Amino acid sequence: MEIKQVKIEELKPADYNPRILSEKQYHELRRSLEEFGLVDPIIVNSNPDRFNIVIGGHQRLRVAKDIGYTEVPVYYVNLSEEQEKKLNLRLNKNVGEWDFDALANYFDSGMLFDVGFTEKDLSLGLPENFVANDVNEEWVGMPTVNETKVDGAVKSIYIHFQTEESIDEFSKLIGQEITDKTKFIWFPKKDKDNLKDIEIKAE
Questions:
Q1: How would you classify the pairing of strands 149-150 and 3-7?
Q2: Low-confidence ranges of the chain (pLDDT < 70)
Q3: Delimiting residues of CATH 3.90.1530.10 domain(s) in the chain
Q4: What is the DSSP string of 5-43?
Q5: pLDDT of 78
Q6: DSSP codes, 53-113
Q7: How far is the first Cα of the chain from the last one, in angstroms, to the nearest whole number?
């Protein structure tokens, strides 16, 4: 695998690249590059018809340019336009999931938060002694939802599941089946006959 140093001005970001960075992600990536440098090369097409079009590493290239890099490490691959686009999608799509046990057992909370993890990211694998960030600080800039009022309910919340296994586990905890058709549930469970007079009122 040969890696070359190439001038940034010679590289051409793909206009179809589907990946974007949030402001927070941009600053985290910038911190990483400033601390460790650009350790992962930019993947670029060497095909004469697609020469110097960036396939993978658009965001790293953008941040490197903002920091002041004039050259970046490049790994060239010779691909047709169709293959180029497919590899771009693969590089963006084919990423694994975090092993929360490994995060909890091998990394301290300070390091995890320092590299950009949030309490929400780690909520599935937090150890008992894990020290969380200020929730109010994490919530800045997050969207708000107008709560609907349901007659007979003290409080209603939305629940998001990351995996099918999480849904199964939650179903067992509350003793109710959750299917693709489930729109809402009551806890404790209410029979259908008891729901006839319950009305949902949106403010």
A1: unpaired
A2: 1, 94-100, 102-103, 106-107, 115, 121-153, 190-203
A3: 3-93
A4: EEEGGG-EE-TT------HHHHHHHHHHHHHH---SPEE
A5: 96
A6: EEEE-HHHHHHHHHHT-SEEEEEEE---HHHHHHHHHHHHH------HHHHHHHS-HHHHH
A7: 61
The first and second tokens of residue 40, run together, are 């992962």
pTM of the model: 0.54
Own/partner pairs, 169-173, CB within 8 angstroms, 24+ separation? none
The order of strands in the sheet holding 3-7 is 3-7, 71-77, 42-45, 53-56, 12-13
The second-level CATH assignment, the architecture, of 3-93 is Alpha-Beta Complex (3.90)
Can you count the helices (H) and strands (E) in the chain?
Answer: 8, 7
Distances (CA, A) of 93 to 79, 97, 178: 19, 12, 28
Please tell me the predicted confidence (pLDDT) of residue 203: 38
Sequence-distant (6+) residues with CB within 8 A of 44 are: 6, 11, 52, 53, 54, 55, 74, 75, 76, 77
Gap between the Cα atoms of 197 and 71, Å rounded: 69
